[in-house]
Design a protein that fits this description.
Length: 176
Amino acid sequence: MKRSMLLASGMAPIVVCGIAVADVDFDFELLNSNGEETVTYVINVEGALDSIDFAIDFTNTGDFTWAGDILFGFTDPNGNSIEFGGYNYSFGYVVAGDFPADWDVDVSGTYGFSADLASFGLSGAGDWTIEVANGYMTSVDTSWSGVLGMNGLAVPAPGVLAVLGLAGLAGRRRRG
């Protein structure tokens, strides 16, 4: 009985190692920003970016900035970059699209949109860079925050040897 339990606990990590958490949700903030202000994030993920679900809270403090003026840049571990959104500011990347016309308002609120990005071929395992900018150059004191649902990307699964090593330690018993 003890031997089969040890074997079962040693086998479980082999199954778990091949599984990665799919479709990464990424939280971002760009608070009280002026035009062109950029925040850069680096995350370690793997896969091919199929699409993004944007869920954004927009706060306008009174200038002419629109919800859709937010600009996102995505760079895969291979150095391929695209940008999405913005108004009159650009990262200089391939333009992958813009937010819908109903985002072209200065009304604070919650906005959602899904964009298919599979055709741009961003993929790889390692550090991905996400840039978030106020894409309206003359904007003052505007905030965006929210979640990007990055479909097709996954958090890398732990290495097989590392997990098996932990399983071996868990299965050891001290003899006295």
